[in-house]
């Protein structure tokens, strides 16, 4: 009935698989858990091999790194059930009835179920504060908040989807680029699929360092730039794109980009401090995007 699919790379996913196995066994459903390592050849995979000892569970090591999108596609293709639960390796259910709650909501009238992402209340070390602050403020949303924008509120770290729908949409994204979630949700919206938001959260545990998160942010903006330039997404798909369009119409986009670029060092120094401003982070992201040549 349910295929639980976990793409991973250089991460110990055994504790997650073990908890999911225990929850699935209690429900008595037909299930499988498949974890696919994307060619990391990590020392963690010694521990991950224990997944093969769990009931209806499998750990697979790819011989070549193909990226997150291709890894998910492979997982979906080998899954034997028609409902897929995708979980990132660095997530963990916040309660013991996570699987049970999903089963309660699954029905033919729904295409996707999203239960929400939360972050631990305890502050991490200073070198990971930016990602933590951003996650708590922008990603941890109530069901009511998510329902206002049902498609853009979906975060791919934890969601349930029909197998045929996922394969249909995800195969349009098969490129090794970071930040394709926006294109995925844009396709879902275009197909007018039925999304249900519920309160069934997971913790996002794998916080990047401030430095790594800023690098990933730029990669995601580079991808957004390519999507915008190729007209794969609309100019109003995100708040950042809307603001960029206004600045461009006023002839101020390149000016703003240069202004932020000249202040980059000072802004990054603040963003790596013990009290990073998300408003400044928004300006930083917008400025970087405006500096790209359209």
Explain how this protein is built.
- There is one protein chain.
- The chain is of the alpha/beta class.
- The protein folds into 2 domains: 2-204, Spore Coat Polysaccharide Biosynthesis Protein SpsA, Chain A (Alpha-Beta Complex), CATH 3.90.550.10; 210-291, no CATH class.
- It is 46% helix and 15% strand.
- The chain has 13 helices and 10 strands.
- It has helices at 14-27, 45-48, 68-78, 98-105, 129-139, 143-148, 163-170, 181-190, 210-229, 239-249, 253-262, 264-271, 278-291; strands at residues 2-8, 31-37, 57-61, 83-87, 91-93, 112-114, 117-118, 158-162, 195-197, 202-204.
- It has a 7-stranded mixed beta sheet, sandwiched between helices.
- Helix 1 (14-27) links the parallel strand 1 and strand 2.
- The radius of gyration is 20 Å and the shape is globular.
- Residues 3-154 form the Glycosyltransferase 2-like domain.
- This is Glycosyltransferase family 2 protein.
- Belongs to the glycosyltransferase 2 family.
